[in-house]
Design a protein that fits this description.
6-stranded parallel β-sheet, 2 domains, alpha/beta, about 270 residues, globular, Rossmann fold, single chain, 10 helices
């Protein structure tokens, strides 16, 4: 039995891929869920580990799918990486294994980027994201820097990104595994879910209380573990990566389990009636 109830939740952290949409398909009930949350005087942030796009790109995608929201309603793992770096080393010199979107976000936040291996550069960190523009030389140079003693940070640990029709794209976690296999080194820190740093950032920037928050998503090892790591309730939806069989065979226990966001919507509507 969970110690939480849905009625107490005032702020929903909503995963996107596999929870709100799959690829370019909005999942049934997503629009109505957001309307219901607003109608009940509650709030939300879309929270994605996917660092391959900028927050603005997600805003455009959500708008196109029929979910127009503001910048304050979208948090990416790149945002969490920037929050961490600005607290640890503002203006750091970075080697990015990243898309142009992520690189632009880092530059905008005041960091200096280096694009090739150079022994004369005083590099602070290698940063690894979900790089859908990945080229072999990026990995080669990243591994050279890491072997020379430079620490690396990763945006998130997800191995796969779910798309429509049961298609999965290799994600940031797979890139981390390549680097680990080559260098023997683990990331110094992995920023996104399930790292509680994202909840720390939201409580810091938005003035939220942990007891009012809940994490809803489709992955056990990121979304649901984030709840446990942060001391907030977790809501698993079985519309993305995790199947009922996965859940049955896992020792990770969500506080709530629903088939999808439409079922969570129905539960919230029942609580209001």
């Amino acid at each position: 039995m969970t110690k939480y109830n849905l009625e107490q939740i005032r702020f929903f952290l909503l995963d996107m891929d596999g929870t709100v949409y799959l690829g370019n398909t909005l999942l049934e009930g997503a629009q109505e869920f957001i309307k219901e949350v607003k109608a009940q005087g509650k709030d939300f942030s879309f929270l994605t580990n996917n660092s391959s796009k900028s927050a603005e790109a997600y805003l455009r995608k959500l708008d196109k799918l029929g979910l127009p929201v503001e910048r304050k309603n979208v948090v990416t793992s790149t945002d969490v990486l920037i929050y961490y770096l600005q607290n640890e080393k503002p203006g750091a010199v970075l080697y990015p294994v990243a898309t142009k979107y992520m690189e632009q976000e880092l530059i905008k936040a005041g960091f200096e980027l280096v694009y090739e291996f150079d022994e004369t550069v005083d590099l602070d960190y290698v940063v690894v994201g979900f790089d859908t523009s990945l080229e072999y030389n990026k990995l080669f140079d990243a591994c050279r820097y890491i072997r020379s003693g430079v620490s690396y940070l990763a945006t998130h640990p997800d191995f796969n990104c779910p798309l429509e029709n049961d298609v999965y794209m290799p994600d940031c976690g797979a890139i981390i595994e390549f680097i680990k296999a080559s260098t023997g080194e683990e990331p110094a820190k992995v920023m996104g879910k399930p790292n509680s740093l994202v909840v720390d950032m939201l409580t810091d920037k938005k003035g939220l209380k942990r007891e009012d928050m809940a994490m809803m998503g489709d992955r056990l090892y990121t979304d649901i573990v984030l709840g446990a790591n942060s001391g907030i309730p977790s809501i698993l939806v079985l519309s993305g990566e995790t199947t009922r069989e996965d859940l049955k065979n896992s020792n990770i226990n969500p506080d709530f389990v629903f088939s999808g966001i439409k079922e969570v919507l129905k539960e919230l509507q029942m609580l209001r009636s």
